[in-house]
Amino acid sequence: MEIIYSKDAIKFLNKQTRQTQSRIISAIEKIPNGDIRKLKGRSGYRLRVGTFRILFDEKGTIINIIDIDNRGQIYK
Q: Which segments of the chain have a pLDDT < 50?
């Protein structure tokens, strides 16, 4: 399984503490396990990690991380 991060996702991760970064990255590496739901109104999925949401798309063995943000900001 290959994981590709977008520029926005990397930018958000770099702003977080080391502990938060490790929580988010370990949750991403455990996909397809976790609190995952299909997005309504657009393609892709979301993964919930506490108050953070990770939007991603899956094509075969490639997981494309589209965006990571706080719960209230990600869907805007």
A: none
The three state secondary structure string of the chain is CEEEECHHHHHHHHHCCHHHHHHHHHHHHCCCCCEEEECCCCCCEEEEECCEEEEEEEECCEEEEEEEEECCCCCC
Query: Which pTM value belongs to this model?
Result: 0.92
Residues 37, 30: Cα–Cα separation, whole Å: 15
Q: Is 6 part of a structural domain of the chain?
A: yes
Residue at 76 is within a domain? no
Cβ(33)–Cβ(47) below 8 Å: no
**Structure token pair of residue 40:** 């309504």
